[in-house]
Design goal:
- It is built from 18 helices and 7 strands.
- By secondary structure, it is of the alpha/beta class.
- It has 3 domains: 182 residues, no CATH class; 61 residues, no CATH class; 134 residues, 3-Layer(aba) Sandwich (Glutaredoxin).
- Strands 2-1-5-4-3-6-7 form a 7-stranded mixed beta sheet.
- The longest helix is centred in the middle third of the chain and has 25 residues.
- Keywords: Isomerase, Redox-active center.
Length: 413
Amino acid sequence: MKIVTLIFNIIFCIVLQTNAQQTEALNKRIQLMHAEKNPQKNIHTMYNIIKVFKLDTGKNVEEIDLLKGNVALSFLNAGNYTHFEAYIRKIKNKFNQTSFLNMAVSNLIKIEAFNYAAVLAKKTIELYESYKDDPSAKPNNFALEDWNRFMKMAAYPYYESYATVLHQKGQYKKALFYEEKALLGNENLLQSSIELYSALLVADGQTDKAYDLLLKTVAMGKASIKMTTLFKKLALQKLGSDGKVTVFLDSLQRTIKQQYALEVAQKMISNKVAPVFKLLDLNEKTVSLDSFKGKIVVLDFWATWCAPCVASMPAMKEISGRHPEVVFLYIATQETGIAPTTKVRNYVDTNKFPLNVLLDASSTTASAYLIKGIPTKVVIDRKGKIRFVTEGYLSDSELINELETMINLAKAQ
């Protein structure tokens, strides 16, 4: 979930701001702990970091809290909830406690452990509300203005996590209450937030409000596949027939396509030959870019640990299904840890997608294409020239509309 990334970034930013003198090496060690699955290894690493970097329990409270939080999460992920709670209690700063509690909730949601997730989500909110208006709770040397900004930012994921769990448990009215608290004052909502909010509005019988919310999102070309599906159902109730719904959606889509055609055309790249590569697929068969001469090729640079990469896969499945004449190659790159190939294979086997996965174990191909971050899509025309490069992921509709336009423009070359 994107909420996990948001919370970890918030707490990590606090550590950086409260002690600007900390070395890059220390920060990297802390981040590695966040990815470590073995609790005992993390305990050993924690004490080693405290010793090597001479962290003081008074001056370096934030750093030590971050170490304890990572140990706590590793116990949670190992299913040892007793030790998880023990290490959460060792965290001195209340904001750090709520941050790691919320990350725990997100991890529990992933494995559908909703009962314990509900307990922790409620505890997170109770603790947050106990100190959110208390300036003395802020970390040392942290500007009050920045602290107030963080408090407002933190409310979003804390309340939404609880709303998500309550939704899964069928407590829709209560979930709607906390989701509206999460969205209060927030203009730039995550795609997942709009999905949840619209579903809760429908469950509460507020179909008109859900329709208006989804109409705005669909008309902007920023809806997810789930949002579009729900919107079609609500539109059918209003318009009365599938035919009228289709005509209405087509009219919206025409406007969106016109906008994308103008914007995307300006991004077209000329005279840049796509670097050739030979990579192994999951069956250890060598696949060469040269073998697809005369075809439009879309490269998707991704990784299993990359949340936006994973979030974009439903949209990639949709767009690839629309264009069987286009070759889609999913290049798994920057995979970390032990047995990266196994991680990729497990992901594909579990999700039955993506197909045509290639393994860029040393990131050589990503480097050849000057990939700065993932996910990144590269559109190559029939002549083997790079026509478009698009980075990141915001919503299903935006990705689908953008790639649809890029593919059609590449075909015209």
